[in-house]
Specification:
- This protein is of the alpha/beta class.
- The chain folds into three domains: 149 residues, ANL, N-terminal domain (Rossmann fold, 3-Layer(aba) Sandwich); 213 residues, 3-Layer(aba) Sandwich (Rossmann fold); 99 residues, GMP Synthetase, Chain A, domain 3 (2-Layer Sandwich), CATH 3.30.300.30.
- 32% of the residues lie in helices and 25% in strands.
- The protein has 18 helices and 26 strands.
- Strands 1, 2, 9, 10, 11, 12, 13, 14, 15, 16, 17, 19, 20 and 21 form a 14-stranded mixed sheet that branches.
- A hairpin with a 2-residue loop joins strand 1 and strand 2.
- The longest helix has 17 residues.
- The chain is globular, with a radius of gyration of 23 Å.
- 45% of the residues are buried.
- The mean pLDDT is 91.
Amino acid sequence: MNQEAGLFSGERWLSHADFRSRVLRAGNVLASLGVGPGDAVALLLRNDFCFFEATYGANLVGAYAVPINWHSTDGELAYLLEDSQPRVLVGHADLLAGVSGALINAKRRGMEVLVVETAPELVAAYSLAKEVCVARGEDPLWNTLIENAAELPDQHVEVIQSMFYTSGTTGSPKGVRRLAQSKSGAETLGRVRDRIFGLSSGINALVPGPLYHSAPNSMALRAAQQAQTMVLMARFDSEECLRLIEKYRITNMFMVPTMLVRLLKLPPAVRAQYDTTSLQYIMIAAAPCPVEVKQEVIHWWGPIVHEFYGSTELGYMTVCDSAESLRKPGTVGRAVEGARVKALDSNGNEVSVGEPGEIFGRLAAFPDFTYNNRDEERAKIERDGLITCGDMGYFDADGYLFLCDRVRDMVISGGVNIYPAEIEASLLGMPGVGDCAVFGIPHDEYGEQLLAIVQCVTGHSLTSEDIKTYLRERIAGFKVPRRVEFQRELPREDSGKIFKRRLREPYWRGESRKI
């Protein structure tokens, strides 16, 4: 059988026909457990074929998937399960072993747990103990149920329904629940997604990011319906990514800026070992991409790099290609066809060209949403039919959007607005810096002062003065952090977002105001 087409993960392979059969069987398995229209199916899964099977299977019976960040603690998972009330949870054995308390409580409410034995490539990628990667207890095995189930009648599901939780980098996660959408609306949205991610029949797609995150999930689920070959990475590794691109002649990828930074930090001799000329379309999003990083990647891979700005709530707002990125360094593009995007001041008035404001938008093709069980939170982010996810930015005279930072991340020091994202972008270009976070901490005179926390590349040593000297040569003096600290590893999600709330909390503890 031709093993150049299908789904690949490690040494495992599924033909398109076998994959479709398993999806139809998955739908039957879920239906037999009482899953039906409007029900939730929670997924506590790493990147694996079963993620697709369970998502498509749930949709076949009118239910929706709830991808869960598998880094969640027992307490965090308990909150998510209480909020989403899934009828079934499908989870990898090793992940389930660490959240027994949350599962016990959810089972008492009637939730079924289906166990997926953790695949060898996942065991290796995360250095897992083999004994926790096999089924224990009485919960049924996903694969056994699939193999013994009959197929549902084949049908095409145009609308891929999932409820994603916001990352919780600034507070409790909120479930973004999409409202019903017509068939024609779903078809329109599908075409928009195809344009955003450069998808078409016959592509070879690589999925290096976590499927619990909305952007790689949207790309991968859509690509699975069209790609000749789709390859899952168990865990992102820079050199392994290049090896897979060469081996499978990858054409399309979605990446977050952190991945690009790590690829560029590979020694030139390592990069030169791999043939990446098959690449045709790279989309980046989910976090600000430093200008120098994008320019270096374009120089390496050619004018195939695109970037979009959006969010789980907003969908796709703006997009730019390589030529636009080189012509307008720092832009995240112009409005996607069918999108309205504005920068508004605190009174809801549109700001002038070049003036920062809070970004509000709406994409006509994207169905409306509410926050699960939190309608009042949804109402707070809307102005005149447009919604915001809390980003600051400005438009130039040609309609190109430039992001400044998150509204809540902006630092006001001595009455001056400072955007940490600009400082972080500069600092990431410094040799020896692996990662960084800049934010405001209390200051008696200025209200706030800047603190930079730096993670050094293994084998490199930097001092506070090294950091300040580097930045003084690149940004205005008032933007240079007065304090610099070092940590072995910063709390960054696989999706590329950093948990600034965790970093900030110790410095603001005991203060009368919170930032």
